[in-house]
Amino acid sequence: MQATFHIKRERICHFHIENYQRLNGDSFHFHSHIELLLVRGGEAEVWINDERATVCQNELAVVLGYEAHHFRSVREGEYTILFIPAFLCPDFVDAVRNKKAYRPVIRDKNAMMRICEAVRMLSEGALNAVERTGYIHVILGTVLRQIELGALGKPQDTDLPAKLLFYINEHYKENISTATVARALGYSQNYISKCFRACFQIGINRYINTMRLKNAVTLLREKKTSITDCALESGFASLRTFYRAFAEEFGCAPRDYLKQG
Question: For the chain, what percentages of helix, strand and coil (3-state, to nearest 5) are there?
C-alpha cells in the first residue's frame, strides 16, 4: 500500500509528545510536521521513505516534513514520539527545505545526552512558551548537526503540497481527478502533477484511489453494507473501477483480502 496523508497528525497545531510501551505502528503515512522517535528502552524498526533502520536504546529517528514513515517496536520498551509543527521552527525548516536526511538515526552519545535532557524538560510540562521553544530549538539544533543532508530536487511552492493534500482529503469521495484538483487550486494540471510526484513519489490519481481504497476497506471490515455500496461511498464511479484499483493495490479481490484478516 502506498503511503497516505495522516490528517489527524496534520491537524496537530502545537508541540506534542506521545509515550508508548509498544509501537504497533500507523500505516505508512506522511504529514508536514517534523516527527522524532526517541527510544528510551527497547528496540524499534523504522521505515523512512524507502529505507529501513533499527533504533536502539538512547537513539533517535528523525522524520522530516512530508517524509513517508512507519514505526514498529521489536519488543516492549519506552518510546517517545515528538511532533513539532513547522511554524515552531522556521530556521530548521529553511535548513532542511528540499533536502533529505541520509543519516536519519542519531546514535552519538553526546548528542543524545543533550536531546534526552531537553525531552525530559519538555515532558515535565511546567514550562512557559519561551522555555518550551528554547528546548525544541536545542533538540532540532542538535539534530541538524547530526543528520547528513542531501539535495532532494528542484524547490517547489512550499504551501502547495499541504493545499493539495488537504483538498484531496476533503474531496476524494467526489468525482475528482488531477484536472479538477488543478482547477480548484488555480494551477496548471502539468505543474500540479509534477509537484505532487516530486513531493510524494506517487501520482495524484493513484493517491486519490489509495485514499478511496483505504476508506472502502474500513467500511468493508465494519460489514454494515455491501461491496458495491462501500465502493460508491468511497468515491469510485463504478464497481468495475473499484475492483480494478483494488486488484492493482492489493493483488486480490476484496473478499479474498478480508479472508486474510
Answer: 50, 25, 30
